[in-house]
Amino acid sequence: MPSYESSLRNLAKAKAKWCPPRPWRSIDESQMIRRYVFVWHTSRGSKPSGRSWAKQLGISHTWLQKLVRQFQADPSEMQRLQLTKGDAKFDELARAREYTEQMRERSELRSRRRCATRRIA
Fold this sequence. Notes:
- Helices cover about 65% and strands about 0% of the residues.
- The C terminus is likely disordered.
- The protein is mainly α.
- It has a domain of about 80 residues.
- It has six helices and no strands.
- The chain is elongated.
């Protein structure tokens, strides 16, 4: 069993080499998704379920739920953004996704590969 001192040295080495993980998408795309989720959250009448809306945006429904909780806690931030930027438009989202792909090609973002599930035979 390693000693306490060697464990602390190893931890210090790991902290010195640590860097934050790269984001999944560009800031522009994330902001556009936030705006679309805000529009979905504040809409009245019949609207798609959260899962189907998240699927249409290409995000997980858990992230959608997290954003909704943030809006409920502090809606003023998104209201300010909507006042300055206006309504979310699909062509802006498409442009943001193109920029995300360019960033991914330059290795500035995480790759799209998914974790392979292990099958035990």
